Each structure stands twice: as C-alpha cells, then as structure tokens.
Amino acid sequence: MNWKKEAERQKDAYLASTIEFLKIPSVLDETTIGENAPFGRPIAEALEYILDFCKELGFTVHNEQGYAGHADYGTGDEFIGILCHVDVVPAGNDWTSPPFQPEVREGRLYARGSNDDKGPTMAAVYAVKIIKELGLPLRKKIRLIFGTDEENGEWLGIQKYFEQQPVPAMGFAPDAYFPIVSTEKGILSCHFTQPYKTISEKCTGWKLESFVCGDRVNMVPDQVKVVLAGGEDATAVEAAFASFLQDHRIQGTADVESGKVLLSLEGISHHAMEPDKGLNAGLAMARFLKAIELDERGQKFISLLCNHFVDGFFGDKLGISVEDEISGRLTVNPGTFYYVAEGDAQVGLSIRYPVTTDFAAVMNRLQEAAGLYDYHISPDFVNKPPHHIGKDHELIKTLQKVYEEQTGEPAELLAISGGTYGRAMKSGVAFGPFFPGEVDTAHQKDEYIDLENMNRAIAIYAQAIYELAK
After folding, report:
1. Of residues 150, 175, 447, 450, which has the active-site annotation?
2. Which of 416, 420, 403, 409 shows the shortest CA–CA distance to 456?
3. Can 358 be counted among the known catalytic residues?
4. Average pLDDT, the chain
5. Is 392 a catalytic residue?
C-alpha cells in the first residue's frame, strides 16, 4: 500500500476543511457556558463542527453533552482510540496575521490551533477517511475521540466523557512529536496565594497598586501591566524603566497619569513545558521592580517572585530541583500573576516533574517556600501523575514498525514535559505529528504547521491506525 500517495490525494481537501475548523475561536469562554456547552459556545461549536464533518464522511458520531464527542468507523467489541482536542489556548498578542483568520504563507498554515491541536486532529480524521475509502478490512473499531478542555489543567471534559464511555484499551494522541512519546512527566498546576488582609505598614516609597500578567499557567506569559502609586519621583521611575528595557532589549512603556506610574512590558510566549525558551513578562517586570522601593506587602510579592522564580526554571530556587534518566529535569513555569493592593495575591504555576519524583516531598517543599513570604498553596491544585509505556508493549512495537517503514529512520522513544491525552489511556502514547528537528510553535504567537510535513503525518497515521485495527 502506498500510503504517501493516498495522503497526497487528500491534500487539498485537508487544507480546506482545516481552515474552516481553525476559524472557530475555541478558547474557554465562561460567559457563554450553557446546555451542551460546558466550556462556552466557541468550544461547543468546534466540537459540533468536527462531529458534523465526521458524520458527512460516513462515521457514526456521538456528542457527550458537549464535554467530548467521538466518531466511530468499523465494527467489533474492541476498539482503538485516537484522542484529540478541539480547544485552544488564548491567542496572545502581536500576530503577523489574525490568529483566527487562517493564512497560508510559504507552505505553512498559520492560525491559533493549527499546531495544537486542530491541524493534527484533522490529520487523524483524514487518516481514517483513507482507510474507509480503501475499504480495508478491520478487526477492531476505530474511535476518534475529541476532547474540549485539554488546555485547561483539570481535564474535566475528558473525565466526564469517560464516566459515560469506555476508555480505549490502547491508542495514541496526535499532539506531540515523532517518533513516539512513550513517557510524559507529571504535571502539577497550583497557586501560591495570599488572601487580602489589612496590615499596619510604613510606606515611604511607591505602593504596588496592581500587578497583572498571564492568561493560563500552561503558557509563558507575554504581557504584564503594573500600576505604582503614592511615590514622589515618577520621572526617575520612568527613566529607570527605559534604561532597563534598553539594557535587556525588551519592549515596554511607562506612562504617568494622576501621579501614578503605569508600566507595561512585552515578553515572548512559549509552551509551559519549556519555560526557559520564552521570555516571561511577569518575571522580567519583577526583576525591574526589585530595585524600586515599595510598600511592605508589594515588596514581599516581588521578593517572592525574584527569590523563588526569576532564573529558577528548573526548581532550584524552590528546592525542588530533580531529574532522572527516563524523563529529564523538573521545570517550573509561573504562568499567571495577580496582585491587587486591596485584594488577593496569587501566582499560578505549571510544574512538570520527572517519573521518579517523590510528589509528596515536592508539595511539602512548595508549602515551605510559599510560607517564607506569608503565602500558601491553594488546596484546589491539580496533579496529573507521570505516564510511561514500556518499550516491549504491543502498541510501541506497532508504531515503531510503521514509522521506520515510512521514514527510514529509527523510531526512538521520547520523553516530554508536555501533557497529552495519551496519558488518559492506560496503554496510550503521543505519536507525532511533528518530525525531529521541526519547530514546535504550540502556545506561541504565529503558531503554524508545515503542510507538507502534515501530509507525511497523515500517511503515517493511516498506516498506523490500520495496523492497530486490522
């Protein structure tokens, strides 16, 4: 079977349907939550779109009250699962073209979600379309599962779905890298929190009135806004900030309004699994504010950021630096910052920890670190334990065979800091769609997929799904 030739025939149709899919701004929208839309109407519309498309292809579809849905092809009691997601992270700022107006430039399709995970989701759908059109005999049913809140740390949607629907015995998520991601680090989403309380304090300098930065803990934040009030020399703060921006080659602004200084700074967004590869706007601002005389509570907030997180992407400043041979180093991404002088203060973290980590010890150390600045760890933290599939598993052997046949390259097993729906199955992995050396633009501005490489991925997916289901 010439799988690459079959994928090539789908190239134009794949692009057209993916563009329509990407036009839906499927970001969590709490203002439009309703019946069959537990995460807002835009995400519900994206789920409805992909299910309607699969129905047109002749698949049997089901919508589990908007929490997730699936499309089935084939018959039989056993089935393999292909787990995808239709939700995306917020677009962020400074895109070359509008993030929800997909645009093709030099063989790349640019849009929020093109890379993570709508482009790969549609690739998996087209892979099953190829199998159906060829009329290949199958022993197992193929189930494409579409989640709706993968980008939210709690994964409530897929949890609700699996309360009503069976978990696939094995399968993969097209949401990471080739050759095969057999190991995913644990993911802890938590917050350092300080409820507001009136305190007696002397303030001879500036009052930190507010510090707001970031949309999600699983993104390196690219914009921060700060308001300082009550100081005496706004001009000196403006000059110091201008010098800081120039020294660090960062974009930002400083304005004075009614005696207050308004500071803003632009960072570089990136996926939280690699926090050192972005430019965290919140941490950059903290680095500047460390040199400004602030009120007592504001100074504690900035000290917490500088002493625990600035230049501390691998947990050393928190005392939780660990690594192992299976999955590498622990990483820390402070993704959200919220401070109001007469309100609560909070720093949201995404911590990716190795397979062999003592989780209880990490939590104890985090509590101790937070307590040094009168903060605590909120009890609503979310922990996804590490996930690992052994090299001798049937799933691994099958995917290795397919990848090596189509690429001629060895199918090495990878470990990542990201979290995919592969870990939602006991025997699940992440499989593609990005090839070794290919740039991963997930959670970044100007997110894109290489259309030729995605066509290669469709061919690999088609053969892999067939081999698993035949």
Report:
1. 150
2. 403
3. no
4. 95
5. no
d(Cα 434, Cα 39) in Å, to the nearest integer? 28
pLDDT at 270 over 70: yes
Q: What angle do CA 302, 307, 309 make, to 5 degrees?
A: 90
**pLDDT over 60 at 198, yes or no:** no
With contact defined as beta carbons under 8 Å apart, do 443 and 89 qualify? yes
Q: How far apart are the first and last CA of the chain?
A: 14
CA distances from 107 to 77, 449, 455 (A): 41, 9, 12
In this prediction, residue 202 has a pLDDT band, given cuts at 50, 70 and 90, of: low
CB hemisphere CA count around 207 (13 angstroms)? 11
Percent of the chain having pLDDT more than 70?
A: 99
Q: What is the pTM of this model?
A: 0.84
Q: Are 294 and 207 in contact (CB under 8 A)?
A: yes
Residues in the chain: 470
Among the listed residues 87, 274, 447, 450, the single catalytic one is 87
Which bin fits 334, alpha (ψ -120 to 50), beta or left (φ > 0)? beta
